[in-house]
Specification:
With about 400 residues, the protein is of the alpha/beta class. It has helices spanning about 95-120, 125-140, 170-180, 195-200, 205-220, 230-235, 240-255, 270-280, 280-285, 295-310, 320-335, 340-360, 375-380; strands spanning about 10-15, 20-25, 40, 45-50, 55, 65, 70-75, 160, 190-195, 220-225, 260-265, 290, 315, 370. It is built from 13 helices and 14 strands. The strands form three sheets. It has a seven-stranded antiparallel sheet with strand order 6-1-2-3-4-5-7, covered by helices on one side. Helix 1 (about 95-120) packs across helix 2 (about 125-140). The protein starts with 9 loop residues before the first strand and ends in a 7-residue tail after the last helix. The relative contact order is 0.09.
């Protein structure tokens, strides 16, 4: 944590039950001072509001002085409330990013409405403290106010359409993180990801039990159902269990609309049939439709180059010849449905790294273990440099 300029290492705190409130830095007047931070006392340890620091303190019901030299930083990420959740670091996905911006705006809009409602309830002077304390009470398992907000945020159910490897799971994680950062619906640490195998049973009554288990485990989070169209395909093939699962999911989407976000994902054509033909009520439950298009040749190269750099590897000749080879390679395989877009690029990198390993380990004195040579790329792609 970075304390603002002028803070002393000793902070004056007031202990009230399990919560500690900072009154003011030592050396400053404490009368009517506005609290700057919120602390929690749990099992004899002091928890600062952003969750990054802990220290042992002696607690009583009187004003307590804490020496910040005793604080130790935890190796954790900053909490989501001070993170910005975007898709800007992802390659391509122009249409998805535009739709995500709409979703982001709506999420932040509802967060502001809820904060305004809280301000009206507790008064403007205490809004920041009340909001932070209430949120962290819930995070730490303490009881918070039970008053139900009057702001109806509606549902955030979504459909993700596109071929494998186009970033659907990654974007689902960002959706989860954004909702959590806005304190809307999501309280869990990560989304629940399932497929047909987790939802469709083998005998009467089995499907109901499976779906109920998945739904209950997903409450307070995002439920991502990959290849969701297979539930509809099952019902068309005479297997009623798929239809049962789909009907139960639809029921949960409405019944738990304020506790659950369902994302249905799969191939574009199959998902269109699922949404438009399976049940008239399903389409009306979906708020956001995301279409994930296949990556272009240049975007696939950008993904490959990013993987290479993130893994600490280098390309011979700064990658110019490698780019030419891969550009031709991508043109020959991107129409193949099984390539898998970004997933296919990751597999390609693994194959090239294997070629690097075979080549370097055959040398008497292996060197440049992280250098990808043009001949490694030629070997895996089956394309010679002089052919491009």
């Amino acid at each position: 944590m970075v304390f603002s300029n002028g803070y002393h290492k000793d902070i004056l705190l007031k202990f009230e039950g399990k919560f500690i409130q900072q009154i003011a830095p030592l050396g400053e007047q404490t009368h009517n001072s506005k609290p700057q931070l919120v602390y929690y006392a749990i099992d004899g340890e002091l928890h600062v509001v952003d969750g990054k620091f802990l220290c042992n303190v002696k607690l009583d019901n009187n004003t307590t002085t804490v020496n910040l030299e005793g604080l130790k930083e935890k190796d954790t990420n900053p909490p989501l409330e001070i993170q910005t959740v975007t898709l800007n670091d992802l390659v391509g996905l122009k249409e998805v990013k535009e739709k995500f911006k709409e979703f982001e705006s709506l999420s932040k809009y509802f967060k502001k409405l809820l904060e305004e409602e809280s301000a009206e309830e507790v008064g403007e002077e205490d809004i920041k403290e009340d909001y932070v304390v209430t949120k962290h009470k819930e995070m730490l398992g303490f009881s918070a106010k039970n008053k139900k907000p009057t702001v109806d945020v509606g549902s955030f159910h979504m459909v993700f359409k596109g071929n494998p490897g186009t970033g659907k799971t990654t974007v689902a994680e960002r959706v989860h993180n954004l909702l959590k950062s806005c304190d809307l619906i999501v309280k869990k640490d990560k989304p629940t990801i399932v497929t047909k195998q987790h939802l469709v049973g083998r005998y009467v009554g089995h499907t109901e039990a499976l779906v109920e288990k998945v739904v209950q485990e997903s409450l307070g989070g995002v439920l991502f159902i990959d290849e969701a169209y297979m539930l509809y395909q099952d019902s068309n093939s005479g297997n009623d269990f798929g239809k049962v699962a789909l009907d139960l999911i639809m029921d949960a989407m409405e019944r738990y609309r304020d506790q659950l976000v369902v994302i249905l994902a799969g191939y574009t054509d199959e998902m269109d049939k699922l949404i438009n033909e399976s049940n008239p009520g399903l389409k009306s439950r979906i708020k956001f439709h995301f279409e994930f298009k296949d990556y272009t040749d240049s975007e696939l190269w950008a993904i490959f180059d990013t993987i290479v750099r993130n893994k600490g590897y280098k390309l011979e000749d700064d990658g110019w010849d490698t780019y030419d080879i891969l550009e031709k390679y991508f043109k020959t395989i991107t129409n193949a449905k099984e390539f898998g877009n970004a997933r296919g690029v990751r597999n390609l990198f693994e194959d090239i790294r294997l070629a690097v390993a075979v080549r370097t380990m055959a040398e008497d004195s292996p060197s440049n273990l992280r250098m990808i040579m043009i001949k490694d790329v030629e070997k895996v792609c089956g394309i010679k440099k002089d052919e491009v």
